[in-house]
Design a protein that fits this description.
Layout: H1 21-41, E1 46-51, H2 55-71, E2 74-75, E3 83-88, H3 93-112, E4 117-122, H4 128-137, E5 143-145, H5 153-163, E6 167-169, E7 190-194, E8 196-197, H6 208-212, E9 216-217, H7 220-232, E10 237-241, H8 258-266, E11 273-277, H9 286-294, E12 301-303, H10 311-316, H11 323-336, E13 341-348, H12 355-368, E14 372-377, H13 395-416, E15 424-432, E16 439-443, E17 449-453, E18 462-470, E19 474-479
The protein binds S-adenosyl-L-homocysteine, iron/sulfur cluster and FE3-S4 cluster.
């Protein structure tokens, strides 16, 4: 990554108008202020980021952390910090409620913590109604920014330090992708890499396209450079991130398919495992299946959200596949990669969902036999087409269906659990076990956790483990020496 020498930036001059140079200028400027404060307080200044939502947000939080570290802040877990950031999600109503809950708490902390700054960013901030509510009911918030201008954090902080007023900077949309900004990775041995931003699919229930903007793919050269850098820096596993990775590259100047990108990434020395999220069934190509079949590095796991098993509802959801075409796709994938683990997302209680539609969903999950499934109660998102649809399902009916679905999912995933018992598998060692400090925890290629005895020094490496016993959602194993 291109690093700027912060000591060589002339702060007496006006900032550059070019990005990212402009932001390196502001980072250097904020760093002076934070240094002075830290000297006055006789301690380092701290920050705490709380991340809601999906892996896109987790990745964005690493970028935020990268900027704050360069400025001189030190990360702590507690919200009793000098700079508190909430990176929000708005995919379902309860995600928003959790943010308001945290704000109530941190507002009280701020009264006792002189100089504390609070910033809100992420998907929820892209909604005018949420921002209005914060402006009127949570006046103590200092900075609000959105999903398109995270790279500007240092500049916004500088404005706040100068003005003492609430700073709000929200962009409706952009096609700008700023490369070469600081970045603070959570793990040394694995990393998320954005390959695209935004979404063009407009599934009728979903707010993501409105809050994340239109689909934009990063240039393959930038992605490959980043991954090469990560590999040199010790990463063995990468997770390629996008709302619909299967449509990667369609709108690049020189169009490129996701399958081709994977083949290029496969060549990078040091990278042992490649994962990706999320795959939209409508764009999953035969070319991709073929690449997965022949790859030595792509993990044997595919997250393939179905949302509903009813072709009638899928049409209204604007998903552009049917129950039958989805099942055919699953057959094709299983024929090419027989030991692949399949997971999915399902929504219950979409407007107009009948008992018959719901039974179609149960039927599909039985037929596919998912390894696991994330189940969600439909949540009405203002501004999406589904919010205005007739036949919103009564809460009690939706709840009942949700419970039935959950039971079925548990039954089905119990069946596929344990299929690798008594075999030796490759495990990426991730950490010391949270439950038992004598044990290590790692992941199989299909993403299942394994606990086993071993030395801490193995963290970040791939080892052979014999799977002694399946415990349902994880295995107990022994290291093969
Ligand atoms: N881009 C991904 C999904 C991102 S959102 C894809 O298309 O697969 C993650 C999941 O949240 C979705 O798969 C869907 O199951 C769920 N979701 C999205 N909007 C929702 C809503 N309004 N109510 C309930 N669940 C929703
Ligand atoms: Fe939402 Fe559909 Fe886009 Fe996924 S593909 S983010 S569900 S609109
Ligand atoms: Fe939530 Fe935004 Fe992800 S709405 S699910 S954090 S893209």
């Amino acid at each position: 990554m291109l690093e700027f020498d912060l000591n060589n930036i002339d702060l007496t001059k006006e900032p550059d108008i070019q990005e990212p140079q402009r932001q390196w200028y502001y980072i250097a400027k904020c760093r002076e202020v934070i240094k002075a404060r830290s000297e006055a307080y006789g301690r380092p200044l701290t920050y705490c980021i709380t991340t809601f939502g999906c892996q896109m947000n987790s990745r964005d939080s690493e970028k935020i952390a990268g900027i704050l570290k360069q400025i001189g802040y030190v990360e702590i877990e507690s919200e009793d910090a000098d700079f508190v950031i909430y990176n929000t999600c708005t995919v379902r109503e309860n995600a928003n409620n959790r943010v308001y809950g945290r704000l109530g708490y941190v507002g009280k902390l701020k009264q006792k913590h002189p100089g504390m700054l609070i910033a809100l960013c992420g998907c929820m901030m892209q909604e005018a109604s949420a921002v209005e509510k914060i402006k009127s009911s949570y006046r103590f918030v200092d900075i609000i920014f959105g999903t398109h201008n995270i790279f500007k954090l240092a500049e916004l902080l500088q404005i706040r330090l100068d003005s003492k007023r609430m700073v709000i900077d929200l962009w409706q949309n952009t096609d700008m992708i700023v490369e070469n900004l600081p970045n603070d990775r959570k793990y040394q041995f694995k990393a998320g890499v954005n390959i695209m931003f935004g979404c063009n699919n407009f599934c009728s229930y979903c707010i993501v396209p409105y809050v994340r903007g239109r689909e934009r793919s990063r240039n393959p050269e930038d992605i490959l450079d980043e991954i090469e850098g990560l590999a040199k820096d010790g990463a063995v596993e990468i997770m390629l991130l996008g709302q619909n990775v299967n449509s990667y590259g369609k709108n690049l100047e020189a169009p490129m398919t996701f399958a081709k990108l994977l083949q290029e990434i496969e060549k990078i020395e040091g990278i042992e495992r490649i994962r990706f999220m999320t795959s939209h069934p409508k764009d999953l190509s035969d070319e991709l299946i073929d690449v997965m079949k022949h790859s030595k590095k792509i993990c044997k796991h595919l997250h393939l959200p179905i949302q509903s098993g009813s072709s009638r509802l899928l049409k209204i959801m604007n998903r552009k596949y049917t129950k039958e075409s989805y099942l055919e796709l699953v057959d094709k994938i299983r024929a090419a990669v027989p030991d692949i683990s399949l997971t999915t997302d399902i929504i219950v209680g979409f407007p107009g969902e009948t008992e018959e539609d719901f039974c179609d969903t149960l039927d599909v999950i039985r037929k596919v036999g998912y390894d696991s499934a994330f189940t969600f109660l439909y949540s009405k998102r203002t501004g999406t087409p589904a919010a205005a649809m007739e036949g919103q399902v009564e809460e009690s009916v939706a709840n009942q269906r949700f419970d039935r679905l959950l039971k079925e999912v548990q039954k089905i995933s119990a069946k596929s659990a344990g299929k690798d018992e008594h075999t030796v598998q490759k495990v990426l060692v991730e950490d010391i076990s949270e439950q038992d400090s004598e044990l290590l925890t790692g992941r199989l290629s299909n993403n299942i956790l394994v606990h086993f005895k071993g030395s801490k020094s193995l963290i970040g490496t791939i080892v052979d483990v014999y799977l002694d016993e399946s415990k349902g959602f994880y295995y107990m194993g022994s290291l093969v020496k």
